[in-house]
Recover the amino acids of this structure.
């Protein structure tokens, strides 16, 4: 027995599924391996009759699904946690529950492609030409007739195969010649497919080119309304204001971000070499003194007392509570004491600014000028307290 | 392809009913279905197609104006930033779900009555998802930058925020569109081969031939095909549940009273099936009339769909009631206010339209006479379509128009452009649908043949097949 190279195979036609299944069983039992049935719908029971082994397709789908699942999680972790991490709504950079929906969808997407592409690949599709398409009666294989074909290249195929197959209850029998040259899609169509594919690559190539090259030609504005909106931008002119500028000057006293003066003696109380400022870096006059008194009476006198000696109502009450064992109190510093007298105005200023011991910072409540004013008023208090003893 | 395994062996009394009527056999099924694609359609088709294409053209003009002028032409504004586009998105994506349900879920449950309508319903799914995808894309303000939603490497070195439910939605809906299209196309391959083999003219033969991919009906191919179909159905089933769950996350993950509820995913899925089945009936009743498919799409199919509509109607009714119960039971005054406001506030008219269309009217299907009356089911299905649109309107608009800050409360009013774009989406849908009816196999021939008793070995019949 030798395979017949000139023949694709012999085709038998059946008009019902029972005869087809019986014939398929006999063909298989006769030892043929290269044979197939062609039916308009899947005939159940035919797989067993033909000895078709279960397909590996489910494993392909499983593998594709696992790739989708793992790449879904990896993609989200890498994109939101590693490559471009930014905090939003207090959510973690990567959290498993929040990553589930996208990974879930990608699992299904890739598994579905696995099922579809896997099925086509295992079936050798698409394959637009088949020798059986040359047989006129075969067009009913997709409508209402059933066919069994034993291929010429089957090792068991011999001169008597045709007659033997004809005896298996078929309604028609036909030898199918091997076409001289395989046909596929018509030539013009193939050409068209090539042209279309090439054209489809053009935009991609153009985008890639634009991405990696520099150009001095102005941008093309397709949607003018969005690109040129009715609003002012920086440096434009405006009819609305007398100075003709769309950009408005800052209101007086505006400090730009990062431009705040935090290092000069006026705001630190210290000179550039770290020593305390000895005099007053602001203009000293009666107004400053009056301001200093007013601020002192509001912010300082509550603890230090109106005369600065520390004998305030708050302090007396706290001392009384301490004697009853209900509070612990460090009395406020006597501002007329020698320790304070020896401090230059810069150090007084710094104490008000930063606070000291129990005393908190008053930088929030008092502007620098007011702090200098208080330091000035304290000098007046000190000399007023010291005066009588010297004058006596 | 489901098979009534051994059904022919059963005694007459308990044998499953014949799903296909009128003494159809393999040849006549091929003829009945293929004829629709082979001969000139009835005049009604041309009229319907003309109208649909005109509306589609109107949509394109509207989109052009929208892109030029910006989304200020719509009624959306703070605090109702979502407005009609998102209402329409949820409406369309919900309609799509019945198609997948019929093609995948009923397949897994071996419900063979699905074979006559599944192709139809799958086509509906794909065109509905196209309409659905349109709305978020044009709602982003600068639609030419909509590709930023996808993780495409770019010169800004930025990636999308995967912690946002809106991005989950991008993945869910695009996966859904892709898998539905794969499922639909794969199911059609054998039928396209039938049309290829019957084609007498060169061009149809060529075109059907290209898309049939060289299908020969080989049994070895059928073996893998059936397995692939089963796997796709098994994948599409969790997919369809996840898609509308993720759509509901758009609302439920937000903290707005009326949105922030755990009932949303199942409630949205039930609503989607409900609206989708209504749309199948809306399309199927006229189509079987026009194209002579009455023996394949029988009254039994339509009645089954009416039963599904009634069941899902009561599910959404239960969800409406449960929302009110939880609003009261939670003791949360903001939640309570939102629901009282829904039923009695500014939008009470919309709320009661929704309840009437979705919960009250479908109860008529308790009566078999009504379930089997084409006119009644067509009208009720139309009401359900309206009601389900209003459900999405009520959810989207009532909650956001009464947000946390009473000074920003606002009564949402749509503009003419809102209405025209929504109307235009129907033009898009019906144009594609009519083209599908005209040129593609509207009924899954191979699957329907498989429902016939003589498709199974052991059924000895005596040559009643016509030549």
């Amino acid at each position: 027995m030798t395979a017949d190279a000139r023949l694709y195979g012999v085709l038998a036609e059946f008009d019902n599924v029972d005869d087809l299944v019986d014939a398929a069983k006999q063909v298989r039992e006769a030892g043929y391996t290269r044979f197939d049935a062609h039916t308009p719908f899947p005939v159940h029971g035919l797989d067993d009759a033909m000895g078709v082994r279960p397909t590996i397709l489910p494993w392909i789908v499983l593998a594709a699904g696992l790739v989708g699942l793992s790449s879904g999680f990896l993609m989200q972790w890498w994109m939101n946690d590693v490559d471009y991490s930014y905090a939003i709504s207090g959510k973690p950079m990567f959290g498993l529950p929040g990553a589930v929906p996208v990974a879930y969808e990608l699992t299904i997407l890739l598994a579905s492609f696995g099922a579809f592409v896997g099925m086509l690949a295992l079936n050798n599709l698409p394959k637009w030409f088949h020798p059986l398409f040359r047989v006129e009666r075969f067009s009913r294989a997709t409508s209402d007739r059933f066919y069994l074909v034993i291929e010429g290249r089957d090792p068991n195929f011999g001169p008597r195969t045709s007659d033997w197959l004809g005896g298996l209850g078929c309604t028609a029998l036909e030898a199918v010649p091997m076409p001289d040259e395989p046909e596929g899609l018509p030539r013009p169509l193939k050409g068209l497919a090539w042209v279309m594919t090439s054209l489809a690559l053009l935009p991609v190539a153009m985008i890639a080119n634009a991405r990696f090259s520099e150009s001095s030609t102005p941008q093309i504005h397709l949607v003018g309304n969005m690109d040129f909106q009715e609003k002012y931008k920086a440096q434009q002119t405006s009819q609305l204001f007398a100075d003709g500028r769309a950009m408005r000057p800052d209101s007086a006293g505006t400090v730009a971000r990062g431009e705040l003066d935090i290092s000069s003696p006026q705001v630190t109380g210290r000179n550039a070499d770290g020593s305390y400022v000895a005099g007053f870096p602001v203009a000293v006059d009666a107004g400053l003194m009056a301001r200093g008194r007013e601020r002192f009476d509001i912010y300082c006198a509550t603890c230090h007392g109106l005369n600065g000696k520390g004998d305030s109502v708050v302090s007396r009450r706290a001392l009384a509570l301490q004697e009853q064992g209900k509070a612990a109190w460090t009395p406020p510093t006597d501002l007329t004491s020698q320790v304070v007298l020896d401090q230059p105005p810069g150090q007084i200023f710094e104490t008000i600014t930063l606070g000291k011991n129990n005393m908190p910072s008053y930088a929030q409540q008092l502007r620098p000028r007011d702090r200098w004013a208080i330091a000035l008023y304290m000098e007046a208090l000190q000399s007023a307290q010291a005066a009588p003893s010297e004058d006596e | 392809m489901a098979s009534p395994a051994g059904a022919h062996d059963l005694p007459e009394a308990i044998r499953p009913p014949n799903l296909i009527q009128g003494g159809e056999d393999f040849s006549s099924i091929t003829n009945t279905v293929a004829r629709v694609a082979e001969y000139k359609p009835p005049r009604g088709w041309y009229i319907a197609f003309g109208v649909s294409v005109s509306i589609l053209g109107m949509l394109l003009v509207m989109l052009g104006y929208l892109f030029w002028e910006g989304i200020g032409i719509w009624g959306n504004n703070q605090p109702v930033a979502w407005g009609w586009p998102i209402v329409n998105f949820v409406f369309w994506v919900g309609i799509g779900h019945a198609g997948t349900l019929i093609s995948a879920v009923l397949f897994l449950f071996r419900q063979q009555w699905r074979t006559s309508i599944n192709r139809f319903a799958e086509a509906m799914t794909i065109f509905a998802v196209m309409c659905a995808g349109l709305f978020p894309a044009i709602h982003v303000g600068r639609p030419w930058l909509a590709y930023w939603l996808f993780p495409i490497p770019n010169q800004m070195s930025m990636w999308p925020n995967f912690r946002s439910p809106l991005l989950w939605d991008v993945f869910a809906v695009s996966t859904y569109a892709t898998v539905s299209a794969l499922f639909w196309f794969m199911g059609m391959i054998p039928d396209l081969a039938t049309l290829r083999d019957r084609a007498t003219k060169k061009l149809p033969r060529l075109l059907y031939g290209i898309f049939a991919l060289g299908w020969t009906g080989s049994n070895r191919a059928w073996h893998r095909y059936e397995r692939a179909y089963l796997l796709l159905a098994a994948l599409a089933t969790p997919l369809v549940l996840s898609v509308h769950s993720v759509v509901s996350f758009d609302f439920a993950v937000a903290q707005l009273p009326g949105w922030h509820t755990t009932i949303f995913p199942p409630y949205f899925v039930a609503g989607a099936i409900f609206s989708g089945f209504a749309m199948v009936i809306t399309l199927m009743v006229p189509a079987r009339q026009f194209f002579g498919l009455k023996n394949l799409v029988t009254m039994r199919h339509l009645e089954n769909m009416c039963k599904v509509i009634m069941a899902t109607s009561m599910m959404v009714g239960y969800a409406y009631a449960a929302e009110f119960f939880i609003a009261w039971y939670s003791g949360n005054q903001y939640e309570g206010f939102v629901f009282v406001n829904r039923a009695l506030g500014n939008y009470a008219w919309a709320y009661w339209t929704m309840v009437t269309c979705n919960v009250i009217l479908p109860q008529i299907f308790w009566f078999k006479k009504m379930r089997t009356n084409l006119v009644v089911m067509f009208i009720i299905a139309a009401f359900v379509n309206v009601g389900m649109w209003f459900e999405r309107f009520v959810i989207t608009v009532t909650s956001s128009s009464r947000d946390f800050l009473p000074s920003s409360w606002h009564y949402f009013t749509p503009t003419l452009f809102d209405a025209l774009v929504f109307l235009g989406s129907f033009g898009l849908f019906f144009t594609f649908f009519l083209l599908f009816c005209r040129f593609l196999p509207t009924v899954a021939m191979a699957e329907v043949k498989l429902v016939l008793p003589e498709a199974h070995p052991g059924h000895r019949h005596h040559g009643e097949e016509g030549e």
Notes: Chain B touches chain A through 82 residues (CB under 8 Å). Chain B has a mean pLDDT of 88. Chain B has 15 helices and no strands. The two ends of chain B are 26 Å apart (CA to CA).
